[in-house]
Structures are given as C-alpha cells and as structure tokens.
User: Fold Dibenzothiophene monooxygenase from Paraburkholderia steynii.
Amino acid sequence: MSTIPTAQHDAVSGADDAELDARFAPIFERIATGSIEREQNRELAYDAVRWLKEAGFTALRVPKRYGGSGATLPQFFRLLTRLGEADSNLPQILRLNSGFIESRLESDDEALRERWLPKIAAGETVGAAISERTASTHNSVTLAADKSGNGWWLNGEKYYSTGTLYADWIDVAAHDGADDVRVVVRADAPGVARIDDWDGFGQRLTASGTTRFDSVYVSDDQLLVRYKASEPRRNTSLTAFYQTVHLATLTGIARAVLRDGVAFAQSHTRTFGVPGRSSPRDNPLVHRVVGRLASLAYSAESITASVARSLENAYQARLAGRANTDTYIALDIEAYQAQQIVIEQVLEAATLVFEVGGASATSETRRLDRHWRNARVLASHNPAIQREAAVGNFHLNGAASNERFSLAHSPSELERVATDSAVAVNG
Assistant:
C-alpha cells in the first residue's frame, strides 16, 4: 500500500484537455494582441498576470481538493508553451510560482500543502528572491530571531528576483547564522522593496531585478524549510522541472516565430530580388524558409512534450513508491540533452525568420527581433555549456564522478536551480 498522502494522489487526477483549451485560448489571444505594444513601451504585464490568475492558470497543478485544476504535467507544459507563444515573458514571470507548487507536491509535509496551496488556488502567486549577483555573496540575506522569542527579522538584498513585482508572496533564501532557511513573506510587507532594475536585452518585462528586505517581520508559520548546505543529494524532479519551464517558453517562441513569419509573408506585397509587384507567399524560397520554421517549431515542441511525459512518469513513480535516485538522474539527463537541441533550434528559427522579407522584416513596428533577444536571454539562464558538460560526464564516467558537474544536488544547489541567472557560471 502506498504511503504517499492522499493529497498527492489528487494532484494527478487530471483535467479535461478541451475544457482547459476553451478556458485559456481567449486569454492567450488577448495577451498576444498586446505583446508588441508592451515590448515597445516596456509596459510591465500586470494586466496579463491578473487575467491568468483570475482564470486559474497559476493554479493549474494545484490538486482539485485544494481548489486547483489538478492538471497533469504534460497538460501544464502544453499550456505553458501556448502562453510562451503569446508572450514569452509570462511563463518566466510565473516560473517560481510553478516550482513552488511542485515543491509542495513533492513534499511529505501536509501542513505546508494545506497552508499554501489553497492560497495559490485562490489566485495568489509566489515570486523569487533566491539568487544574488555573485556566488561569493550567495545567501547573504540574514534571518535573526526576535529577542522576545516570537518570530524573526529578515534583512538583506537579492537580485534576479523574477516574478516578484507581480507576486503576492516572495520565497526568500536566507541564513540564520547556522542553517540555510527558506521563508515566504508578503510582497507588500513593511520593509520589502521591489525594484525594476533588470537590464537584460531580452525578457524585459519579467522584472528580474532587485528585492530588498529591511527588518521584515517573519512569523514561524512563514518558514518553509531549514537545512545544512552540506546535506546530501535530495531525490527531486525540480531540476528537470525548472529546465522544462524554459524549454516550454523557448518552444513557445518558436511557435511565435512561425506565426509571425507566416503573417508577414501572407500580407506583404513585394519579394526581395523580384522586380515589380509580387508576393512572398508565392515564392519557392520563402516556402523553404517557412517550411524550415515549421519544422524547427515542431521539433522543439515534440522534444519538450517528451520531457514533460518523463516528468509525469517520474511523478507517478514517486506516488507509487517506485522512484529512486536513478529515476531523477535520468530525468535530469533527459532535460539537459533536450536543452542542447531546443536552444539551438529556437535560436536558428529566430534568426531565419528575417529571410521571409529582407530589410522590411526588420521594421520596429513588427519587433521580430524580440524573439531572438528573448530566446538568447532564456538560453543563458541555466547555461547550456555547463549542462552539456554534465551530460558528457554522465555518459563517460557516471553521474557522481566529477563533483563540479555531477547531478547530485544538495539543497543549496537546488536554490540555484530556481534562479533565473547564469550567476553560478558567470559570476
């Protein structure tokens, strides 16, 4: 008999695909309609996030017993890909919220599920304050006990705080002088400052900037977990899950590239290098370009869907008590291998799309460049070169033969999994 709490079984009951599509398709269309204007004006996507909250998108993976949709992982990532097609900023804005839900589903702590999952089902979301600008200052945020013995005080600064400007709660990595601690604080609590100083050339609306904590009060029930940085590997799917969020977002960009390339060719009235009035849609060379764009998008989507199925299989194995360390190492390897291919394919598509129309395709009014910029920034978050080395090391020597690139994640390493920066490699 399984010893997994009933709440976790509820999480895989699934939702109806047709109902989910009918519920979210109009919202995705609405989000896509304003994506270029938001990009041009650097207008943060508050309205879009609100629409997603109200429709229950931010609670897709929350089990039905807590008020969510109970979507499976393949369902979740399929819809996340469609959201990435509408606006690639949105899946990244909600990335930590999605991982926060997944962390609760993996946990055996029913009290934490009962406390947090109904909040998310009600439309509240969680942002990230986990990473700092350099590895040398990692976890410099301090958590000090109140002298009265009631509660704690949080002080310090984090960067790459993706989603925090849009969130109701902030998941913070701190240190109490002895242990690493994860706490959750209200985003609007006294002493919290959220600063939109993200200066990346892509994913501009994710608000992945600074969050400061100046004597922010934390009650005992806002503490999530306490651990030693030296604790051994945890069996978890979170590494692969967070990477697959990026894969789905990149795949959404590939779909958007195909969509915009087709729209340009269908509406344009002049083909480069062809005198007189002509249409790109009738040009065999443009046919080849669009055919390649469609193939790249298909491949990226197929690969991402395959990883999503593997995540679901691992989740089901966990519920049945069949998952072990090898299960999660295999999952990590699959996600890393997928990353190498999807990144290259999406960047190729985002460059190739300009061949449908020559110089006219570079018009600022179309903002086709946003697809490459967004894909390039996403590709830098969990550096592919590091993951590729881990894959090679695994196949050559086994997962744990090289400590630097092994797949044995300590809790402190899992903090960095949740970040949206390349700080672990680039400093």
About this structure: The chain has 15 helices and eight strands. The longest helix spans residues 284-319. The two ends are 48 Å apart (CA to CA). Residues 1-12, 400-406, 408-427 have pLDDT under 50 and may be disordered.
